[in-house]
Amino acid sequence: MNHIEMGMSMFVADSTTTKSTLNYRDQPENGAFLVQPAKTGLTPILDGAAKALYVVGGQQRLRRSILDQDQQWYDYQKGVVLRVDTRTYEIERCLDYVSPPETCAPGDPVLFKSATLRNDKLYACTQTEVLVYELPTFKCVAHVSLPIFNDVHHVFPTTDGTLFVAISGLDMVVEIDLYGNLLREWDVYDGKPWTRFSPFIDYRMGVSTKPHKAHPNHLFMVDDEIWVTRFEQKDAISLNHPERRIHIGIERVHDGCMAAGRLYFTTVNGHIVIANPATLEVEDVIDLTALHDTEVLLGWCRGLLVEGTKAWVGFSRIRPTKFREAVGWVRTGFKHSLQTHIACYDLVERRCLAEIELEDQFFNAVFSIFSAISGSEQ
Description:
By secondary structure, the chain is mainly beta. Helices cover about 0% and strands about 45% of the residues.
């Protein structure tokens, strides 16, 4: 059965705010979160970067390391949205969300995957739901859950009021309206929808389709053309013209976003890849790991906000996984694995300006980062 609700407020928690002081790299970590300056020891220069951020992701039931083989490998209990003030270092917990039981199986992980912010609305998704929130109140004004939703990774609104949804579990992208009507569908692996999966199964209820063949995970527009990144193929393809492809390579790819006429992608091992949307060629690669000590493991790189020459990037602490090849790039020899955090980089000077830790806020996975200041306030 489809689950569709409009004009309702769901599971909005009372917001809480914490604050800490600025901590330098040679000082102990002693705040609710840590803001670290560049290696030069100078105070971070964040001019041109967003003054406040929304960070979208999830909270684990228990903190775990990559060595916890006997624990459930993907044990998240709620979706979370934080508001981070990058000037005062205050963090406000804006939203906690737990999926209703009719939209997922008991014990299934619940967290927010990649979202889209547009016109003061946050288009969010769990693995089995699409939700629309009004900002800054976080009132839920739409909620859609369909049986075909399995490991939903991104929701992207169109100018026509419909939604593109990346369904990683079925290697599909679909277009739906806010009432849950299915308008269009694409198989991003072989172009043949429903040849590998049955349309008559409720894929929300504890059905595993792993390993995925393509794992589409992030949608973006180039003019009127809809594109999606494919995790396993390390590329992005046009849904309108699948022969049009951007080969990203390096490692498995996640975010794709347009800024200043260029496309920016993240790879999970810590690279920002910059491509030309006209030529579909990669023009630059920034290895973020090279901007840190070689003995530091930054984490799973996902979540990207590019504004001018600055970029905020999300890193989630590396978690255990059944599919060890997904983290095969994690080499031995790291002496320090960073907690889940966001970091600001100067893309021209190629240096890290600041890092803000999030795990003390019971926030364990970063999926999206947005500016939380309207255009008139920035």
